[in-house]
Design a protein that fits this description.
The complex is a heterodimer of chains A (about 350) and B (about 600). Chain A is an alpha+beta fold and about 350 residues long. In chain A, about 45% of the residues lie in helices and about 20% in strands. The chains are: A alpha+beta (about 350), B alpha+beta (about 600).
Chain lengths: ~350, ~600
């Protein structure tokens, strides 16, 4: 048995922290909830046996017992977050992705320290917002009948052709319905994200990030759409929820062998400044890029390795608190101890998740 | 060695450049212009036109004049409903869902239409440079997906060009600016063209151009601004004259042309007049449109369009992990960036005065020519490290899109991820390769599918299948799936789902070559006819002077040959005309030597 700290959420320390004893059920396996503070943010945690969680394995690779645990833990994680959401409201809490653990309360504090800027920005960005989920399912037979009714020439085409045409018409109809729903809700929301469709009949499962003051308008809009499209679709409206879908921060513990291998590939010493790292990367690229070595078949592979190594080293450096304090002056240590204590924070695209996705494609 | 040129194949205009002694030079077309309208026309009498001549006859031949073909490149018919509404020619759907264009009962793929433009550019460049052009670097918007890039590459092949590389327009623009600069600097390229909007952020150091982030909007460009003006004109005309011009295609064409002109004029002037006499003929006589449009009004009309540039700029900054203050240079590309309101917005967003010392219509072609020089080893102080502008991945259980390569990853690159099976004893897996940013597979662009079969029968979740994505420096994607236990492996090279088969491409190359040959033959025919006509008149003239030197029968013989030649030169058989010339020359020999 290996005990770790499971992190449910980050909360804003500037507002009053709710009394967690008010939640007698506790966290996973009824372990008591605790609060770990760092500056003006805090984490809600409880003890967990990491062997039972195995968050690093894909769901399919877990034993049945582990899968059962996983489901129970996920439910508990959601319950704790709902409790916090209810107590603190949408202003001061940020659910973290399911599965964050750290070895001790000190380590949790370290996570907060290292991810402070990301968490603080995310808290501010999501302040006063909530997640509202709209799911819509259609009755395909009814839609098809409708299409046939409106297109009398369909009957005259041969069977295979009719099937193809019907399928295409249904796809067009689906896109139109999705666009109709999204067109009304998009202006009232700050962001949105799609979730997997759960059933065959489901055509729409989208989480919207909505400001608290927009909630009544959003409710009205959902009602209006549901009435307008009731002939075609049945709706489920879920929420308000903590903003699970819009927290895009991922934390990974530093992987020493990976960072070490990359550091050696870039021919760097055990301590190097950011300038040295960039210069080494550029020198290697200029020497190895296939555009400069058109007759060397191995140049492409070498370049791929260099680019990958640089990405890893760069992610490691970016994760260090001193990197953010001073961009260029510090030297970074690639010693085992330093790497294993680091957390690689990845919030790529956290601010805007889906640029370039054209609205018309929806 | 043949020349390599850089081509900016634009939505409305194209431009080409070449390196001469290491210095970039814009190549003027046969009409002497530095840019060529990206317009192709098929006239009713079977002629094929490209460039300015095609553009000029647009109003007389709306159905046979193909404009903005770039918007249809590599796209499926269902994706382009918006685009279809603003062109004057019919856009059809091919068997596999691709776009096709039918003129005079002949169908063309968009690649073929683009190839006609490229062919004109190639021929004009060859005439100007006096040598053959075989290699080219062609540019595309950074936000083009794999299918659109593949289609552009194919268009080049059809036109008889060896496409060295397809590169991103904003990246090309930065190459044009950065050539003499060695110091470390951050460049933001803002490219608003006729049909698309791109933003790229690059870091330049010691000749290495490293693209940090790209972002954009594939549906924003000058055309949208023109449409805003046209909508305003329609509305105003309707209110004042109670007539709807939208139903009259010819009137619409004139409105669009006038809107474009007004928009361009308002970049330098504060007010312009839109004057279209007899825009509509009614029972009560012709109606005229004569309105005044001010720059302020235009800015109001396009306020929502201008607002759309903010998000991609912020996205690019966020992806590059920098603030606006970190940008050292802002480069403007594309004709739309001449609009003062756009420039103001860029200044407000970045807080820097944008560079405009290179013509925004030409800067991309110049950069493409430089990249061509790099790839042929002629330019050695520059290296471009580009990125994939869209994420790549596969469809996993529940229709979820699992990314393997995130957008803005430097290329060449290779990424492997391990997957497993979802069911017990599953004997095959389907690998569906997609490109895009949506979490749902269905909303991304499908690039292809392949199946890994003969998997050993084991419990779900136990099998390990390594999926590897490989992108080479040319941006060509190869996906491999391997069952680690058995070593069983399947691979596809992504050819783009909306692409032409090798067979179709060969047919199109043949058609393009045939056309080039036919053009060549027509040119020869014209030369021979000209020669024959001149010869006939000359001999006729000397006969009138020197008839005394020859016998009557000889004179009759020559006159007979002249008549015969004049008759055959009406025909199209070059051989017969040549024989006629030879016969006449032979008959006329007597004139020369008989004293």
């Amino acid at each position: 048995m290996k005990l770790k700290r499971f992190i449910y959420a980050t909360i804003d320390n500037r507002s009053e922290i709710p009394n967690l004893t008010e939640y007698p059920a506790g966290g996973i396996n009824a372990a008591p909830l605790e609060v770990v503070c760092y500056r003006d943010i805090a984490a809600v945690v409880s003890a967990i046996d990491i062997d039972q969680l195995a968050p690093h394995l894909p769901l399919g690779a877990l034993t049945e017992q582990q899968q059962e645990n996983y489901k129970a833990y996920l439910l508990k994680y959601q319950q704790v977050n709902s409790f916090l959401f209810e107590k603190i409201g949408s202003d001061g809490m940020l659910p973290l992705k399911f599965g964050f653990t750290a070895s001790s309360n000190e380590a949790v504090e370290k996570v907060l320290e290292q991810a402070y800027i990301h968490l603080r920005t995310c808290l501010d960005r999501l302040q006063g917002t909530m997640e509202l989920v709209i799911q819509a399912s259609w009755e395909l037979p009814k839609i098809l009948q409708d299409i046939v009714k409106n297109n009398p020439d369909l009957a005259s085409a041969d069977a295979v052709q009719t099937g193809k045409l019907l399928f295409e018409a249904a796809e067009v109809k689906k896109r139109k319905l999705i666009a109709a729903i999204h067109g009304k809700l998009s202006p009232l929301s700050k962001d949105y994200l799609d979730a997997p469709l759960k059933t065959e009949a489901m055509i729409f499962n989208r989480s919207y990030l909505v400001e608290k003051k927009q909630e009544p308008l959003f409710d009205d809009a959902v009602d209006a759409i549901a009435t307008e499209l009731e002939d075609y679709l049945s709706f489920r409206y879920i929420g308000p929820l903590p903003v699970y879908s819009f927290v895009n921060i991922e934390l990974n513990q530093g992987n020493f062998s990976m960072v070490d291998k990359s550091r050696k590939l870039l021919q760097l010493p055990e301590k190097a400044s950011w300038e040295t790292i960039k210069a080494a990367y550029r020198q290697l690229l200029l020497a190895n890029h296939p555009d400069r070595n058109p007759d060397d078949p191995k140049a492409a592979q070498r370049t791929k390795d260099i680019v990958e190594a640089y990405e890893i080293v760069s992610a490691y450096c970016h994760s260090l608190p001193e990197f953010r304090e001073s961009l260029t002056l510090n030297e970074y240590s690639f010693a085992r101890e330093a790497v294993e204590q680091s957390f690689i924070v990845d919030n790529k695209g956290a601010v805007l998740a889906r640029a370039g996705k054209s609205e018309s494609a929806v | 060695m043949n020349k390599a040129i850089g081509i900016d194949l634009g939505t409305t205009n194209s431009c080409m450049a070449v390196l001469v002694c290491g210095k970039p030079l814009i190549i003027p077309n046969a009409e002497g212009e530095r840019t060529t309208p990206s317009v192709v026309a098929f006239t009713k009498d079977g002629q094929r036109l490209a460039g300015l001549s095609a553009k000029q006859q647009h109003a007389d031949n709306p159905q046979g004049t193909i404009t903005s073909i770039k918007r249809f490149m590599g796209r499926q018919w269902d994706e382009v409903t918006e685009e279809m509404a603003i062109v004057t020619y019919p856009v059809g759907k091919a068997e596999g869902g691709d776009v096709i264009i039918t003129v005079n009962d002949i169908t063309y793929a968009p690649q073929e239409i683009s190839a006609i433009i490229l062919q004109k550019l190639k021929t004009d460049a060859e005439t100007y440079l006096g040598e053959r052009v075989t290699d080219a670097v062609i540019t595309v918007p950074a936000y083009f997906n794999d299918a659109q890039r593949k289609a552009t590459r194919d268009a080049g092949r059809i036109a008889g060009l060896n496409v060295l590389r397809v590169i991103n327009e904003p990246t090309a623009a930065s190459l044009a600016y950065g050539l003499d600069k060695a110091a470390n600097q951050m460049i933001l390229v803002f490219d608003l063209g006729g049909g698309t909007f791109d933003v790229s952020i690059l870091e330049l150091d010691a000749g290495l151009f490293e693209v940090k982030a790209t972002s954009g909007d594939n549906h924003l460009g000058g055309n949208n601004f023109d449409k805003a003006i046209v909508d305003w004109l329609l509305d105003k005309f309707k209110r004042e004259q109670a007539c709807d011009l939208a139903k009259d295609p010819l009137a619409m064409l004139r409105l669009y042309a006038a809107a474009e002109k007004a928009r361009i004029e308002l970049s330098t002037m504060l007010v312009t007049h839109i004057n279209l006499p007899s825009i509509l003929t009614t029972i009560a006589g012709p109606k005229h449109l004569n309105f005044e449009l001010t720059r302020t009004q235009l800015n109001e009309l396009s306020a929502t369009l201008i607002a759309r540039i903010v998000r991609p700029v912020m996205q690019a900054l966020a992806d590059a992990n920098i603030n606006a203050e970190a940008i050292d240079h802002v480069v403007l590309v594309g004709g739309m960036t001449r609009m003062p309101a756009i420039q103001d917005k860029v200044r407000a967003l970045i807080g820097k005065e944008p560079h405009q010392d290179i013509n925004p219509d030409e800067v991309v072609a110049v950069g493409a020519a430089i990249q061509a020089g790099v790839l042929r080893g002629e330019v050695t102080n520059v290296l471009l490290l580009d990125v994939t502008s869209l994420s790549l991945g596969i469809e996993t259980k529940g229709g979820v899109f699992t990314k393997l390569i995130e957008r803005n990853t430097s290329i060449p690159t290779r990424k492997t991820q391990t997957f497993t099976t979802a069911e017990d004893n599953q004997d095959s897996v389907e690998i569906h390769v997609l490109q895009g940013e949506s979490e749902m597979a269905a909303f991304n662009k499908s690039l292809g599918t392949f199946v890994l079969v003969d998997l050993p029968p084991v419990r779900r979740g136990l099998l390990e299948i390594d999926v590897t994505f490989d992108i080479d420096a040319n941006g060509i994607i190869t996906v491999t799936a391997e069952d680690i236990v058995s070593g069983n492996e399947q691979q596809i090279r992504i050819e783009g789902s909306t692409s032409l088969s090798e067979n179709e491409i060969s047919c199109m190359i043949k058609r393009a070559e045939d056309y080039a040959e036919a053009t060549q033959r027509l040119r020869e025919l014209a030369d021979v006819r000209n020669h024959a006509e001149v010869l006939a008149s000359e001999i006729e003239l000397s006969l009138n002077v020197y008839y005394t030197r020859i016998t009557e029968s000889e004179e009759l013989m020559i006159r007979e040959q002249i008549t015969k030649l004049r008759k055959v030169l009406e025909g199209i058989d070059i051989g017969i005309i040549r024989t006629g010339i030879a016969d006449l020359v032979a008959a006329a020999q007597v004139l020369k030597y008989k004293k």
